[in-house]
Amino acid sequence: MPADNACSATAIAHPNIALCKYWGKRDAALNLPSTPSLSLTLAPFRTRTTVTWGAETDCVVFNGVENTGEESRKILLTLDRVARSMATAGAPRPPCRVETENDFPTAAGLASSASGFAALVVAADAAARTRLPDATLAALARQGSGSATRSLQGGWVEWPIGERPDGADSHGRQIAAADHWDVRMLVVLVRSGPKEIGSTEGMNHTMRTSPYYPAWVAGAAEDVVQARAAVLGRDLERLGRVTERSALRMHASMIAADPAVLYWKPETLLALEVVRAARRSGVPAWATMDAGPNVKVLCEAADSGVLVERLRGAGLDVQVLVPGGPARLLEPATATSP
Ligand code: 2P0
Questions:
Q1: Distance of CA 114 from the midpoint of ligand 1 (Å)
Q2: CA 300 – CA 306 distance, rounded (Å)
Q3: Which domains are seen in the chain, by residue range?
Q4: 267-300 pLDDT tens trace
Q5: Which residues, other chains included, contact 225 with Cβ-Cβ below 8 Å and sequence gap of 6+?
Q6: Is the distance from the beta carbon of residue 31 to the nearest atom of ligand 1 less than 6 Å?
Q7: Would the CB of 290 count as within 6 Å of ligand 1?
């Protein structure tokens, strides 16, 4: 039962896949990255989140099931931060109800935390009637989960490391809208369960123990320069080379950690081999992998059919994603009567 003056709002956000990866933090508390990154926001996968600001008790419902674990703790912490950003800062945050659902596998390296925290801050801002500036929302999303700052924006998004200690200059910025370039991202679903090691833990462990981590960080800025130019010039060959290189170098830094962080499964290598064979046969396609075994394949729209056929022919499960728009309110915030 909602409380007096309760207000609900619903937002949706799409996940994003980084073409140049974020792996490592210069500030763990603020989620400030050690590497700049560049991503593509992708539809139709999406997270849909409703926040009721003023419920009987705090309650987080995740894909229809009440959650009391680490995920709900992080979600409620984000709502605390929204409350602290309000003009009435100092007043305690009212109990809130959060209902969130993904129409794609959660926590499997498909960027569900990115779309999740992006949808959360947009819905919370409307439900709390805070009307926070975009840069504040971007920082709140980033603190929930780094990559979420990129999912607030549609299309092609860059997230610089910034220079300021408070992170005010480190959040996602669109460099080109979704309709700038009609590429495809094929998602090869190797495993749909939660990953064995969370991204935050995997990053921290890589930073602490991998002798390759400094080399990974050293090359990241130049990758983003190349990728940005390739996106603006719609040069898929150039973008694809940087994309695959960035993913493999990031994974190399993890694999060199002690003990190794190895997300790959046999089907991960199978998918990589299909992509490399496609390239050898003249079909331009490049692979990227995140904190999980699934493989994403960047290609021209016109080549997606033949690539899907080849990947499925190798026994792999494939879905086709297209450039997606920004996080947005689905319906205006509504006062909820008790
Ligand atoms: C990325 N990943 O750029 C990289 C590549 C995974 C591999 O951002 O610790 O959930 O919450 O900031 O954003 C996934 O890490 O990590 C991620 P936190 P996040 O997309």
A1: 8
A2: 11
A3: 2-177+332-336 (3.30.230.10), 183-323 (3.30.70.890)
A4: 999 999 999 999 999 999 999 999 999 999 999 9
A5: none
A6: yes
A7: yes
